[in-house]
Amino acid sequence: MDPLPHELPADTVRRVASELRCLPTDERVALRLDEEDKLRHFREYFHIPKMQDLPPIDLSLVNKDENAVYLLGNSLGLQPKTVKTYLEEELDKWAKMGAYGHEIGKRPWITGDETIAGLMTDIVGANEKEIVLMNALTVNLHLLLLSFFKPTPKRYKILLEAKAFPSDHYAIESQLQLHGLNIEKSMRIVKPREGEETLRTEDILEVIEKEGDSIAVILFSGMHYYTGQHFNMPAITKAGQAKGCFVGFDLAHAVGNVELHLHDWGVDFACWCSYKYLNSGAGGLAGAFVHEKHAHTIKPALLGWFGHELSTRFKMDNKLQLIPGANGFRISNPPMLLVCSLQASLEIFKKATMKALRRKSVLLTGYLEFLLKHYYGKDKAETKTPVVNIITPSRVEERGCQLTLTFSVPIKSVYQELEKRGVVCDKREPNGIRVAPVPLYNSFHDVYRFINLLNSALEAAERKDNGV
């Protein structure tokens, strides 16, 4: 299934159609792409919801026994089948031996998080000692900012992108307030140009160059939650550090979605959740990264027992022996049931590899883009066909698997009609519908089905809006 060298996804679709002697929009193209997909078997590792089990479904419109078209891994990933097994192992251990489970089994509870940290190295591109699995994303963000954001009279700003995820925005506001700083003066927000949806890298770098001497921390998302824009993390890191800034990233929508090389890029710190592309379940165990160059210079501002070296932790003498680097930021013992669900997913990533997943993702999302433009591009407006605009960047380097769509018709009805037909995606204010074909468990035929159901949903929405 690997695309030919330097072959764009649209060219791959056309080539396969030519080989099959059919139109690029034919179902046979999707089926052939699935046949040639070397990762297709990973779909069997996950529970895929059935049509009949979805709350908004209209059973008169679907085959109740079919799989739903689940394109919402950007919000909540599907459940790996081994999650239940791993949870039952730990529950059984707890039931049978109680406190002895702290030191016994595949996942001793004292070191449960450490037993799976190595599975994250390929996903984020870091050394194991630079990774810690703990807490939730915003908690980790606060812990990291407390250590990296040390404002001075001359260097006191935090730089972030416009419309950052609310949680990040609130975290930054509260950190500024904690230091008694004026939010309006200290929160430097980079906005897109007038009439544009996404940020230009040159505009971000220009702000860093001009104002870098007053910026203490740059905190961007690796992937913007609304537009799906993948920011140029190496360029932002290099530019920020050249001006003396610490550079960190919220990787909630990037981790498990695109290839990351945090260590090699020299990123100072990062954090992520694990319930989106990492499939750990709602409220799953989050992660953080602190570059090894800071292991002996940046220390946690808030301390806890699990930041103490394991070899002397149980001496209980209250004389802290802080673990250098990321692990020193741990405060409490790991929640083992959350470790189980994350382990189940990370083991699948280990088998698939991020490089192979990203290669498939480029083609999978490119196929979705191709079909959307074919049926609903701006050139179709004269035929009175609804126009579907993709606000996510078209260059594959500037996006992951998510495409954010806006419509020339009201999206409320469109979204409702999609839900009735078993399409699981989401809408985000002000007017976007996010669609994310995930390479681990989505197929090319899922994308084909989505396009057909979108057409049906648009027709139904138009009839409803016209009072028919």
Structural summary, described in words:
One of its GO terms (molecular function) is kynureninase activity. It is found in: Cytoplasm. Its EC number is 3.7.1.3. Keywords: Acetylation, Cytoplasm, Hydrolase, Pyridine nucleotide biosynthesis, Pyridoxal phosphate. It catalyses: 3-hydroxy-L-kynurenine + H2O = 3-hydroxyanthranilate + L-alanine + H(+); L-kynurenine + H2O = anthranilate + L-alanine + H(+). This protein has 468 residues and is of the alpha/beta class. It has 2 domains: 9-67 and 353-466, Aspartate Aminotransferase, domain 1 (Alpha-Beta Complex), CATH 3.90.1150; 84-351, Aspartate Aminotransferase, domain 2 (3-Layer(aba) Sandwich). It is 38% helix and 12% strand. The protein has 16 helices and 15 strands. The chain has helices at residues 9-20, 27-35, 82-97, 112-117, 121-124, 137-148, 166-178, 183-186, 201-211, 233-242, 262-265, 310-313, 336-352, 354-376, 411-420, 444-465, and strands at residues 46-47, 69-70, 79-80, 131-133, 157-161, 187-190, 215-221, 246-250, 269-272, 287-290, 388-390, 403-407, 423-424, 426-428, 432-435. The protein has a 7-stranded mixed β-sheet with strand order 4-10-9-8-7-5-6, sandwiched between helices. Helix 1 (9-20) crosses helix 14 and helix 14 (354-376) runs parallel beside helix 16 (444-465). The radius of gyration is 23 Å and the shape is globular. The two termini are 45 Å apart. The model has no long low-confidence stretch (mean pLDDT 96).
